[in-house]
Amino acid sequence: MGLPRINQKIAVSVVYISGMLLNSLDSTIVNVALATLARDFHVSPDAIDSVVIGYLASLAVFIPVSGWLGDRFGTKRTLLLSLALFTIASALCGLAQSLDQLVLFRVLQGAGGGLLTPVGMTMLYRTFPPAERVGVGRVLMFATILGPALGPILGGFLIQHASWRWAFYVNVPVGTAAFFFGIFFLHEHREAEPGRFDLAGFLLGSVGFGLTMFGLMEGPSRGWSTPVILGSLAVGIATMVAFVLVELRTSIPMIQLRLLGNALFRSTLIVSLCASAAFLSVLFLVPLFLQEAMGVSPLGSGLTTFPEAIGVVASTQLVAKLYPHIGPRRLMFGGLLLVAASIGGLCLVDLNSSLWTIRILMFFLGVGMAYIFLPNQAASLATISSEMTGRASTLSNIQRRLGASIGVAVASTALGIVGAVKLGGGGEMVPNLAAYRVAFMTAAGLALLGAVFALVVPDRDAANTMVVPEGRRRRRTVRVEPAKAD
User: Which of 150, 182, 197 is the last residue of a domain?
Assistant: First the structure.
């Protein structure tokens, strides 16, 4: 007896959510585990950064090529390969006996993660027609917002009650289940003419993107004026400029930069960049403030930031109902104002503040993010053809990684310039609240900048996504006839 057929919207959503949660959870859990890893491998905190850098460098290499690989070899095959690679590498990371081994396996893990996100997003957008893109937004919300919120909680629990190795082992059962589910239920899609492999674009894009990300992520800790950071940023930016010039002159480029000429895609991409930078900078700052300044445990810190995820879930249904009537521009503008206000509230928190104050502010941060990301994801690819969906998803994922890097870099730099600690009255070092307030104000500024860009999003171009579901239309048109007299 054959296996039952499953609606592709369900099948693709299940595999994509599983893969994205693995990817986003892994990054946040590993960040929580870094201090423990440094102790276990007997290395300095600076040296353990290689665990993160190796992963990010691998992502930078494989994200740009993901769109072409999916078009050339099929999205199902490429997605399953990335899932298998990520899952196997996770098991190997858990088994690592030295720092060198762990870094090597993290590079392998990054290769899987770099392919997983854009190819999975491509499958989602090809499966859901424009009129159902709000449904895509709901799927992506769970993957992009809940993962970073759950990671610190799960990471803190595993490290506190088990071992850092479980930060990697936890990926194995989920990845394995998603892999076999995908084998049996996903359909294959392959473009008839994917074009030749753009070697020049691949090399320039990978090097430029990788060095730029390294410079942004490591600049705050190593110092922006150090030779390695200055060199990385200079070479990275120069290589990215060369990459743009080459890609615009290539008939079939690795990254289709001409898609940025699409007003709706370009404007939603910029809004998402600002929103991601603001959101990730807060997720970086709040745990740091809780643990370093207020003395909260890692698990307690995760539980305090988690209400952000509750805010997302609580408001998603309302946003989905409002979207067909209001459109992306005003929803995103309002969401970014709420995010900026929530971050502004964090500027007023001090060492004597109740944790519930922070939890309430994080809840409203999540509410605001739902009003940004769901409309953004619903509208962004509304005018992109099916043939270009893979290349557009690649650009979206590059933007998301850059947004995260910029957000953390800006927040870290603001902390470093003011100084996260200062000399207290008794001669001891105490937390410097002014530094955290400057960093939070900077994050709020990023959100306000996104609100300005949200005002230019063309709602009319997203009209094919602003469709009231058939069931709700029918319910709205039902009329109750008055009773007839006997």
Answer: 197
Q: In terms of domains, do 295 and 161 share one?
A: no
Which whole number is the average pLDDT over 1-13? 73
Domain region containing 269: 259-460
pLDDT digit string (tens) for 425-484? 666 667 788 888 998 999 999 999 999 999 999 988 888 888 765 555 444 443 434 444
Q: Does some domain include residue 253?
A: no
| 178 plus 280 within the same structural domain | no
**What's the CA gap between 80 and 16, in Å, rounded?**
11
Give the number of other Cβ atoms within 10 Å of residue 257's Cβ.
Answer: 16
Q: Assess whether 166 and 269 both reside in one domain.
A: no
> Residue 30 belongs to a domain with what CATH number?
1.20.1250.20
Domain for residue 241, yes or no?
no
- The arithmetic mean of pLDDT across residues 404-409, rounded, is 80
- The answer to whether the Cα torsion of 297, 362, 412, 46 is positive or negative is positive
Compute the distance between CA of residue 241 and CA of residue 361 in angstroms, rounded to an integer: 40
> What does the alpha-carbon distance between residue 18 and residue 6 come to, in Å, rounded to a whole number?
17
Q: How many CB atoms lie within 10 A of CB 306?
A: 19
Q: How far apart are CA 159 and CA 154, in angstroms?
A: 9
Question: Does residue 232 sit within a domain?
Answer: no
Q: What is the pLDDT of residue 267?
A: 92
Q: Which residue has the tokens 């060095």?
A: 211
- 429 class by beta-carbon count within 10 Å (0-12 exposed, 13-18 middle, 19+ buried): exposed
190 with 264, same domain?
Answer: no
Q: Of 197, 215, 242, at which residue does a domain stop? A: 197
pLDDT at 360 over 60: yes
Q: How many domains does the chain have?
A: 2
- In which band, very low, low, confident or very high, does the pLDDT at 306 lie, cut at 50, 70 and 90? confident
263 and 186 assigned to the same domain: no
Flag whether pLDDT at 231 surpasses 70.
Answer: yes
Q: Considering the domain boundaries, does residue 34 fall inside one?
A: yes
Do 275 and 150 share a domain, yes or no?
no
pLDDT in tens, 72-91: 888 888 889 999 999 999 99
Distance of alpha carbon 160 from alpha carbon 69, whole angstroms = 40
Q: In the chain, pLDDT over 70 holds for what percent of residues?
A: 87
